[in-house]
Design a protein that fits this description.
Layout: H1 2-21, E1 30-32, E2 38-42, E3 45-49, E4 65-69, E5 73-76, H2 82-89, H3 110-123, E6 129-130, H4 134-142, E7 209-219, E8 226-229, E9 237-238, E10 247-251, E11 268-270, E12 279-281, E13 284-285
Parallel strand pairs: 4-9, 7-12
Antiparallel strand pairs: 1-2, 2-5, 3-4, 5-13, 6-13, 7-8, 7-10, 10-11
Length: 287
């Protein structure tokens, strides 16, 4: 009876802490697969994708538009870890293999992500796993927010030497992932060691950049602008997925980048064969 009362008190205390630190946090519906990966159910809905013209650091290809996500989906609670990758595939491709199984896997191409997902689907005898679309990623990252970061607006200069209070407790980026602990030791960190967003997802800002499903072009039609080019940034578009282009889109900033690249709307690209020590992924599971 005494143990039971202590357990109840611990649950209440945990709920109070979460509600104080994350007032908009929603207790998550979580699915755990055979590999031990946890997936948070993201409810269908609509949101404004992109950034306002007034947002500092905004790129030309971040036009705001209304997007409709027509189906619930399960988003990986964390980036795929080195331990999960090695358990399924049998080797660790990371540039930091001795860091530990809870560090995000890195140095993997888009093609290798697709192969990992193929093997996972085969292992579980399903076809429900895939990469998130770009729209699903930003919808999940924002978690109902309309500010530059899921945790607030831009309040400080984009710098590795000046902290950005809005993401300091939510993201591993260049200020706290090298300059503070210890000095100049730039590296990723274990997943789930910062606060989650309101959906209960970790490291949507920072740690490693993340591949998504969409393809893109690198230049606009007139070849006057360089960056992510898609035909999906249109109002009232439903479940967008861009399939044209030789490049693949990446989302979320990396541990070595300033807060400019941690913004929810920030878009970048690589060719699908590219590997970087700051580049990983997370996956989606359909209900």
């Amino acid at each position: 009876m005494k143990f039971h009362s202590h357990f109840i008190l611990a649950l209440i205390f945990s709920s109070v802490i979460i509600s104080v630190l994350l007032p908009n946090y929603v207790m998550a519906d979580v699915y755990t697969n055979k590999l031990g990966m946890r997936f948070v159910r993201i409810p269908k809905g609509e949101f404004i994708m992109g950034s306002p013209k007034s947002e500092q650091g905004r790129q030309w290809n971040e036009k705001q538009h209304r997007v409709i996500i027509s189906k619930d989906f399960y988003m990986g609670e964390t980036e795929v870890t080195q331990g999960q990758w090695e358990k399924l595939v049998g080797f660790n491709p990371s540039s930091y293999p001795k860091m530990g199984k809870d560090f995000p896997v890195d140095t993997i191409s888009w093609d290798e992500c697709i192969e990992f997902i193929r093997v996972l689907n085969q292992w579980e005898n399903t076809n429900k796993y895939r990469l998130p679309t770009e729209a699903e990623w930003e919808y999940a990252c924002r978690a109902g927010s309309a500010t530059a970061f899921a945790s607030g607006p831009i309040t400080a200069p984009f710098s590795c030497n000046i902290p950005e209070p809005s993401i300091l407790e939510m993201a591993w980026y260049c200020y706290n992932s090298g300059l503070a602990n210890p000095s100049r030791d730039f590296r990723p960190h274990p997943v789930k060691t910062k606060l989650p967003n309101a959906f209960g997802l970790y490291d949507m800002h920072g740690n490693v950049q993340e591949w998504v499903q969409d393809s893109c072009k690198r230049r606009n039609f007139w070849r006057t602008k360089i960056g992510v080019v898609t035909d999906t940034y249109k109002d009232n578009i439903v479940d967008p997925l861009n399939t044209n282009g030789e490049h693949k889109i990446i989302r979320g900033g990396g541990w070595y980048q300033t807060s400019k690249y941690q913004r929810s709307a920030y878009r970048s690209l690589y060719k699908p064969v590219v590997k970087r020590n700051s580049l990983g992924f997370r996956i989606v599971r359909m209900p």
